[in-house]
Amino acid sequence: MEKISPPKRPLSAYMMFAIVKRPQLKEENPSLKFGEVGRKLGEMWKELSDEEYKNRYIREKKEYEKLMIDDDNNSDSDNN
Question: 38, exposed or middle or buried, with CB in 10 Å at 0-12, 13-18, 19+?
């Protein structure tokens, strides 16, 4: 019997933001070192008023939780 791995947990809202913004920030500021990029991303995140990333995270987290519940229900029926 093949074991099915559980769904991956969604990225945090900050990580979604950082994945999108890091390349843009590096392109605009190629001389920034790794730590400086992280620091600048943190500053940008604190200033963010747009709820896009937070709302996306909430949607993905709800979907993840639904998948985990479905996975738990399937596991319970497999064990019987």
Answer: middle
Higher pLDDT residue, 47 or 26?
A: 26
List, in order, residues 6 or more apart from 16 with CB less than 8 Å away.
53, 56, 57
**Fold exhibited by the domain 13-78:** DNA Binding (I), subunit A (1.10.30)
Domain boundaries, the chain: 13-78
Cα 41 to Cα 34: distance, rounded to the nearest angstrom: 11
pTM exceeds cut of 0.70: no
